[in-house]
Amino acid sequence: MCRFCSYARSARRPNRDRCKREHMEQAAIIEPAEIVIKIVIILVAAKLFGELAERVGQPSVLGELLAGVVLGGSLLGLIEQNEVLRVLAELGVIILLFEIGLESDLEEFLRVGSSALAVALVGIAGPFAAGYAAALAFGLSHTVAIYIGATLTATSVGITARTLADLGQLKTSEAKIILGAAVIDDVLGLIILAVVVGLAKTGIVNAWQISKITALAIAFLVGAIAIGVPVAPRLLNVAKRLRTRGILTVSAFVFCLGLAYLAHELRLATIVGAFAAGLVLARTEDLAHIQERIKPVADILVPVFFVMLGVSVDLSVFSPVNPHSQAVLVLTATLLAIAIGTKLLAGLGVLRRGVKRLVVGVGMIPRGEVGLIFASIGLARNVITPGEYAAIIAVVVFTTFATPPLLKAAFQAGKKKVPIAE
Amino acid sequence: MCRFCSYARSARRPNRDRCKREHMEQAAIIEPAEIVIKIVIILVAAKLFGELAERVGQPSVLGELLAGVVLGGSLLGLIEQNEVLRVLAELGVIILLFEIGLESDLEEFLRVGSSALAVALVGIAGPFAAGYAAALAFGLSHTVAIYIGATLTATSVGITARTLADLGQLKTSEAKIILGAAVIDDVLGLIILAVVVGLAKTGIVNAWQISKITALAIAFLVGAIAIGVPVAPRLLNVAKRLRTRGILTVSAFVFCLGLAYLAHELRLATIVGAFAAGLVLARTEDLAHIQERIKPVADILVPVFFVMLGVSVDLSVFSPVNPHSQAVLVLTATLLAIAIGTKLLAGLGVLRRGVKRLVVGVGMIPRGEVGLIFASIGLARNVITPGEYAAIIAVVVFTTFATPPLLKAAFQAGKKKVPIAE
Predict the structure, then answer these.
(1) A379-388 burial by CB neighbour count: b if 16+ within 10 A, else e?
(2) Which candidate from B33, B84, B260 shows the least CB-CB separation from A83?
(3) Which of the residues A260, B163, B203, B209 has the least number of beta carbons within 10 Å of its own beta carbon?
(4) Rounded to two decimals, what is the model's pTM?
(5) Contact (CB<8Å) B40/A258
(6) Chain B partners of A33 at a C-beta cutoff of 8 Å?
(7) A interface mutation test: which of B31, B64, B87, B301 has the most A CBs within 10 A?
(8) At what angle do helices A142-151 and A386-421 cross, to 10 degrees?
(9) B87: nearest CB among A47, A84, A244
(10) Are B246 and A30 in contact (CB < 8 Å)?
(11) Partner-chain residue, chosen from A51, A244, A249, that has the shortest CB–CB distance to B296
């Protein structure tokens, strides 16, 4: 409620807009209690839809996205973008990449070796080239085409790992190659992300700019790890000598946010810094304690990010009333075919014998967090239109939906042949 | 940085103000990355000043307040109030009261019995009456006088308990009476808070209004506990059957925020609801798990609240250049004398024999969180002036600073007599 006029939550839009315009400088329009109830709505919807998704055999992140679509302006209109929720969502994705970094072991996936690297490279180059070409064919600009190509590259580690675990196949060589390739994808994806964010900020596409950003991203990641790995344990030891409460939680959180901000200052994305912070702290002896303490914070903040991503989906671009809806649907179908086809191709990159290439290809299909992050940055910076954004979100949703049943089928198709050969 | 003009963090104030005025509706002025670095600054300063406070034998909350004063506009000017930080601070105080609720055991302090109740009642009535009378004598209005009286009532459980633990005196009957009385103080303080918040919202002071708010506050607390205690374990059991990640953390957090919002809707303070949520969940079998998971969230958010309280202190009211500075100083000294004198008097309320009344009185001196919350609500709603706010903050700071050494001295003064008697 506004202190200066009768605007209340029940007021209709024109009144609220007038109040916002006239009283914004005198008073905070966003009452803390309003955000409190919005956080409650977001978290309850995230958990309910997440649970429904799990019950039908899908990862809960899908439910959280759908919860956002339902709560957002296209349907219920209960939640809208505002500065506070945007910051909470940003903190959510920072913590998510920090956690992924904490869980990553650089050495482990290096052992899976050349097959994973080949799958990852084919799986990055294929979707990027095909997505870029298709976007140009649709008459879109170079910048938008690069952006769309980039969003099709990164495999979702979380969804793949979770599906493999659900199928009880985590120990197979297929699973190791998929996970190794997905982690390499993630790191390459973060470099691509740095490139596209630089692109979105400067709007310039040239080889010099791209190689500068790539060099900066690699230098930042390598530098953060090279300096961080020896320095972080000493900093933690100093911090642990302090007597104040919760020092390990605060130290880890501050380290993560500090590197996120440093990455931002270097024109990279904040999540690149958060991921680097996770990789560094993953090698300290306090890893287990840090994970234990960061988890509750992530449990609360991460769903806010995915729900707010769903809130930003504007369903009306698909509506038959929208003159561009057909173009959006065609774009979606094309990108989806590229997204699935090129990753199946990537499965052929497997060098080792006796590995089911179809399983590896299917395992690489899901696009997840990183693709959504690319798209949301592109939308926020007006690089891509709401229609293109909706098409990308649809690709992410469809590939994520399709993977669990497809992966199950691919494993079973493999099995039928094997009994005869054995 | 602003998307529409060259305003950057380095820009001077007039440019930023112009940008804010002109571009506020087109773009979010608050970039998430700006908040990220501010959270880093707040948490690092909170921990450094908290540590310094601990090293000189003071509770770390004092250091956090000082950190805010140093970071705020009066000195370094690194942190200023904004919508996002205000919401994070509000979430911090909500979590703090939720934690205090989780730690409270209604039955335990009922056993300490009549002495604690007598000390609590004298310790509430004394400061309130004396503060009210003094404020009227200073020519302030009835509303302001009630507000100032109210801020002088509540004892800080946190600071008292921490000091007693530091002195190794937690098991003495003095300690039990002090803690029991401080808990009763807290509950009564929350009712008084509900009254003063209602006062701040409506501006009306009459017996009917006060008794309505008091009845509402008691009905809310009793109702939340009466309904919550049987219902909460069932809700938790339903939630625990869900398969999604972090369900206990999210359930506890949502329960806390939900009751906080309900309290707000009933014109009570959000923290009354959070405290009630804590009391209810304190009686479930999941208490230990909930505390473990809420702690990291509190570790990060609670310091934001205390630092932002410090940021809101305007030191210039004490400056000799300020024409009212002398009045503020006289008000501060008067309120301080009342705050200490009346609580020492409360020590005489001890009914049990063989208890050091001086120790109990001194133990009741520290004013803390609740007093600060009263003051910040009063300032935000323009009930009290920045000068009166600064005087209240000074009283809280001085009483908190004074308690640890005074309590130590009071215990030792008692000891000198005992050895001869034994």
Answers:
(1) bbbebbbbbb
(2) B84
(3) B203
(4) 0.77
(5) yes
(6) 90, 260-261, 264, 270
(7) B87
(8) 40
(9) A84
(10) no
(11) A249
Helices (H), B152-286: 157-166, 173-202, 207-240, 247-265, 270-281
Residue whose C-alpha is closest to residue B119's, from B160, B180, B162 = B180
Token pair, residue A20, equals 């916002």
Which candidate from A47, A63, A250 shows the least CB-CB separation from B47? A250
Q: Quick check: A60 and B260 CB within 8 A?
A: no
Mutate to test the interface with B, among A1, A55, A87 (most CBs of B within 10 A): A87
Q: Give the C-alpha separation, B150 to B189, whole Å.
A: 8
Look at A257 and B303 and tell me if their CB atoms are within 8 Å: no
- B270 and A54 in contact by Cβ < 8 A? no
Number of Cα atoms under 13 Å in the Cβ half of residue A289: 12
Residue A32 and residue B270: Cβ atoms within 8 Å? Answer: yes
Using CA atoms of A282, A288, A290, A294 in order, give the dihedral in degrees to the nearest 10. Answer: 110
Number of A to B CB contacts under 8 A, please give it. Answer: 158
Structure tokens at B284: 């479930």
Distance between B240 CA and the closest CA of chain A, angstroms: 11
Q: Hunting for tokens 């200023």 — which residue is that?
A: B80
- How many other β-carbons are positioned within 10 Å of the β-carbon of residue A143? 18
Three-state DSSP class for B324? coil
Return d(Cα A72, Cα A85) in angstroms, integer: 13
Whether B283 contacts B229, CB under 8 Å: yes
SS3 A367: strand
Sign of the dihedral defined by the CA atoms of residues B401, B405, B409, B411, in that order: positive
Residue type, A71: L
Residue among A43, A94, A300 whose CB faces B297 most closely: A300
One digit per residue, pLDDT tens: chain A, 422 residues?
A: 333 343 443 344 455 555 444 444 334 456 788 899 999 999 999 999 989 988 887 777 778 888 998 998 778 888 888 889 989 999 998 998 888 788 776 666 566 668 888 888 898 899 999 999 999 998 888 888 888 888 888 777 666 776 776 677 777 778 878 877 876 776 677 677 767 776 666 666 567 766 776 787 778 878 888 899 899 999 888 888 887 778 999 999 999 999 999 988 877 778 778 888 998 998 888 999 999 999 999 999 999 988 988 887 777 766 777 777 788 888 889 999 999 999 998 888 887 777 888 889 998 888 866 777 778 778 877 888 888 888 888 888 788 777 777 887 888 776 654 444 33
User: What residue has token string 């909500």?
Assistant: B94
Any idea what the Cα angle at residue A180 is, between residues A179 and A181, rounded to 5°?
A: 90
Run of H or E residues at A326: helix A325-346
Burial of residue B282, with CB atoms counted within 10 A of its CB: 0-12 exposed, 13-18 middle, 19 or more buried: middle
User: Is B261–A40 a contact, with Cβ atoms under 8 angstroms apart?
Assistant: yes
Helices (H), B113-206: 114-137, 142-151, 157-166, 173-202
